[in-house]
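Below is how a single chain appears once it has passed through the pipeline. First comes the sequence as given, then the structure the pipeline wrote out for it. We keep one example in the README because the format questions we get most often are answered faster by looking than by reading.
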Amino acid sequence: DLLEMYCRLKSHFFIASESGVILESELTGTPTLIVNVTDPIGSHPVRKGWLFLLKRVIDHKNGHPLTIQDMLAEEYQRTNLRDLERYYYIDNTPAEILDGVMEMIETLSSQRSESPLQRQHREMVTNASNYLWDRFYYTQKWGADGGFIGDSCIADSYAQKYA
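Resulting structure:
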């Protein structure tokens, strides 16, 4: 455990999922690329310079993929997420993860500024969280706090592909 913590402290960045191990990165301040995110509100990282990639979600009702806006809608959020009877979740592809890694390297090396799509995505998440605040305890617990959802961004490569 101590070796893992030491490695995380010395790492340029970390690749993680929504699992509990992400909390160690938050504690150490290690920049992180979070992959296979299923919840764009509750899993939105707070720290600046962090990036994330959403899983693709297919609705079993109609066979259509959900847009980012669909994942922020009350209907998706009401299902307590990860509803395997209603939705089919597709992991990020190796190419998407590689794009995220390359973007993470660029972000850390040049302090690249947030793109208009990334800004738009964060605003959508914040607005959805504010709207759902009174409807779901989960959103109160993990959503925007006083209008602040965090300083991180969805990977621009992902936003360009799926926005």
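The chain has a mean pLDDT of 87.

See the next section for the split statistics.
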